[in-house]
Amino acid sequence: MRHLIYLYFRMRKLLQKIFSAPIIRMANKYASRPDQVRVHKALSTLFSNIQNRPGKKGIKLNFTPSSKVIIFSDQHKGIRDYRDDFALSEKNYLAALDYYNKEEYLYCNLGDSEELWKNKLDDVLKCNTATFEAEKLFLKRNAFIKVFGNHDLYWANAPLAGLTLEKVYGQRIKIYEGVIFKMTLRKTPFYVFLTHGHQGDLQSDGNLFSKWFVSVIWGPFQSYLRINPNTPAYDNQLKSEHNTIMYNWTAQQSNLALITGHTHQPVFNSLTHLEQLYMNLSTAKKGGNKEEIQKIEALLEAGNFSGDTSSRLDYSKNTYFNSGCCCFSDGDITGIEMEGGKIRLIKWKDASRVILEECPLEHLLDTSSALK
Fold first, then answer.
1. Confidence of residue 20 (pLDDT cuts 50, 70, 90)
2. Where are the domains of the chain?
């Protein structure tokens, strides 16, 4: 018996080594195909709909100097089996929600909160009672916005979705495709546009193969191999391509920033977090700041980040941000804060908040406006 158990684990290790990379590449090839024309058209249409007819597709809110918002996305809450990418991150997620509720932040849940490609809805609801209770506290303060993504598209399409949500949260809530925050910076109107970011990606716009592949092929395979693909080692080229398409749309806009999720790759000021680290390292070396050099080199050596430099964005405008995800393989979660006139990329690690990057919101203005 002991010999059979040993063979079982050896076989799994061997299959992990042989099949993980090709299966993930296959999933990416058929499941993630963002098209720039489609993406740009979808983003423009959604922004226009919310701007001109707020309420149905999305909500438009005024953002003042006293406003505070936290944006998390891509929890992919599962059923606590080996396919559940959220399981290790639940502790950090609950700690974060406790902090932001006590500090009276508005919470924007930016999509793919529930993993409904791999799991049945009832099972997900049963296994995530604690997280729904934590989210409910924001709703009691009228400080909770739920946006749908591609993996929880059920909330937007299913006839009984509204009744299900009422059961979960104790009251009716609307599900949106996007959010617009309007603010005034240096006497100039400025908009921050939030959406999940799957628009125009063939993975999400009617591609039934993707859902079938994830639920029937990848889900059971992932459960057996016990792999969480949400690490910097997987499909970063595709993520960077998608982020670049998103950035290119914002670069065509005036006094507008875009915040999405979807790719699970944190982006701040149109740069992946890793690119930011390399830029900060270069600045520290030029200034001879040994303490900062050692700090950044330690972070790079530890490899505790998400993103790569294989496809740099053109960061002539710092207008694109990505919240990352709440299901990294090490249990960390990342998100975007706006508070006190600043925007921040934050991480929660070991139930503690860490500021990764921050800058004044005024720095997001177009150059001509910023000089006023």
1. low
2. 2-370
